[in-house]
Amino acid sequence: MSLDLPSILIAWTTTDSEASAQALAKSAVEAHVAACAQVHGPISSTYRWKGEIHSNQEWRITFKTPHAHADSLEYFVQQHHPYDTPQWVAVLSDSVSPTYRAWVEEEG
Q1: For residues 46 and 75, what is the distance between their CA atoms, to the nearest angstrom?
Q2: Does the pLDDT value for residue 88 go beyond 50?
Q3: CA distance 93 to 36
Q4: Domain count of the chain?
Q5: Fewer beta carbons within 10 Å, N or C terminal of the chain?
Q6: Domain assignment of residue 94, yes or no
Q7: CA–CA separation, 53 and 62 (whole Å)
């Protein structure tokens, strides 16, 4: 693994259905704001919303994109997400293999 920068961004959001998650993942890759998007689920989410506790099934989407595309990906997800207040968590990778990083840079 290499600690050379630039790094890649790894970001997560969740949606309320597999179809919604798949559509958001595909559209982000098609728009070239992400090189890759993986859908995981269902997962069980428990959260407080407007003063009430909710427990629901959701599907998590994990995106990989070049660090330079971080703002574009976040904006894209915010504009295309079905939730009023979508989860958005993003981190820079600590270590990425040079070949994978090059692929993300080329495709993202």
Answers
A1: 25
A2: yes
A3: 15
A4: 1
A5: N
A6: yes
A7: 25
What's the pLDDT at 2? 44
Among all chains, which residue has been given the structure tokens 């098609």? 30
pTM: 0.89
Buried b (16+ CB within 10 A) or exposed e, 59-98: bbbebbbbbebbebbbebbeeebeeeeebeebeebeebee
Domain contains 22: yes
State the DSSP string of the chain.
-B-PSS-EEEEEEEESSHHHHHHHHHHHHHTTS-SEEEEEEEEEEEEEETTEEEEEEEEEEEEEEEGGGHHHHHHHHHHH-SSSS---EEEE-S-B-HHHHHHHHHH-
Q: Is residue 83 part of a domain?
A: yes
Cα(39)–Cα(59) distance, rounded to whole angstroms?
7
Check residues 4 and 71 and name the one with the higher pLDDT.
Answer: 71
- Average pLDDT (12-29) is 97
φ and ψ at residue 57, rounded to 5 degrees: -85, 140
What is the model's pLDDT at position 36? 96
